[in-house]
Design goal:
The protein starts with about 30 loop residues before the first strand and ends with a helix. Helix 4 runs antiparallel to helix 5 and helix 5 runs parallel beside helix 10. It has 2 domains: about 150 residues, Rossmann fold (3-Layer(aba) Sandwich), CATH 3.40.50; about 130 residues, Nitrogenase molybdenum iron protein domain (Rossmann fold). The strands form 3 sheets. A 4-stranded parallel β-sheet has the order 2-1-3-4, sandwiched between helices. A 4-stranded parallel β-sheet has the order 8-5-9-10. It has 10 helices and 10 strands. It is elongated. It is α/β, with parallel strands linked by helices.
């Protein structure tokens, strides 16, 4: 699977952010739906409307049923011939991922397009409910949204009094960039009692220098599992960084942390478990030092 789809959603406005594309679809119930991003496919299934999907974007691989559906393109281009044959009455687009000109073009061709934006953890529940409204599956969607919200709250309560751990989340190493506090991954770190060392930077996915990371001295480093442990190799040159001294370098499950769906709960557990290990490792190192 291309790394692109494993990068947390909303990091980029590919092709520019929406303008005309922000217009919502109607609230009518729709029976033939196509999605323009893998996480939207997953959200439709999670909302109980998977049986209404007639087409999906490339890399829609969860749940398994999604693999059986026709492909209508990817984040960069739409197969208009295939789309015309499928004749959907609703297209779901990704705010920040589906280029604005693609959404606007689809609307000019007469397609009904709903643009879904997810930046914060709470937006996942909102997206589920909106999809439920659009597909006449509001009861199922509300149930899933409620369980998701309650589970996040439980994590937050569990770690409310945990000792803080300073975290550097490495999205990619070439170029080296991270996330600020407006991104849901930063929220996950907060939920689990950690803090993002670059929370104060401008931009959802700011580039940073190696020197800046060394200066901020994170106590734990996270990266997506698709990168493998080689993601951290460059940091071996700075053994004095707290994360190295404490042996706190962790890989997060790529699909779960990279797609804004109810599976973020799996990512939340991974983050919380890692931070608990990080606290133990830090305490053990302090005892020796």
């Amino acid at each position: 699977m291309p790394v692109f789809w494993l990068i947390p959603l909303g990091l980029f406005c590919i092709g520019g952010c929406s303008t005309e594309s922000d217009q919502p679809a109607s609230s009518a119930h729709h029976a033939r739906i196509a999605t323009l991003a893998p996480h939207l496919t997953e959200l439709v299934f999670a909302a109980g409307a998977g049986d209404k999907l007639v087409g999906v974007s490339a890399y829609s691989d969860y749940p398994a049923e999604a693999l059986e559906l026709p492909l209508i393109g990817d984040a960069f281009a739409v197969d208009h011939e295939q789309l015309a044959m499928l004749n959907p009455d609703l297209l779901l687009a990704w705010q920040g991922g589906t280029p604005a000109h693609v959404v606007d073009e689809l609307r000019r061709f007469g397609y009904n397009v709903e643009v879904i934006q997810i930046r914060k953890l709470a937006d996942v529940a909102d997206a589920l409910r909106r999809i439920g409204e659009l597909t006449d599956s509001i009861d199922d969607a509300n149930d899933v949204a409620l369980k998701y919200t309650q589970s996040l709250r439980a994590f937050e309560q569990q770690f409310a009094d945990a000792d803080d751990v300073r975290v550097f989340y490495q999205v990619d190493k070439r170029p080296l960039y991270t996330i600020n506090d407006q991104h849901y991954v930063s929220e996950l770190i907060d939920v689990c009692g950690g803090s993002n060392v670059f929370s104060d930077l401008d931009g959802l996915a700011p580039t940073v220098s190696v020197e800046a990371v060394v200066e901020r001295d994170p106590e734990a480093m996270f990266a997506s599992s698709d990168a493998g442990y080689g993601a951290f190799d460059q940091w071996d040159r700075w053994p004095h960084i707290a994360a190295n001294r404490y042996k706190n370098r962790f890989l997060m499950p790529a699909d779960e942390i990279g797609r804004a769906t109810p599976r973020l709960l799996i990512a939340a557990k991974a983050v919380c478990d890692a931070l608990q290990v990080a606290r133990t490792n830090r305490a053990s190192t302090w005892a020796i030092e």
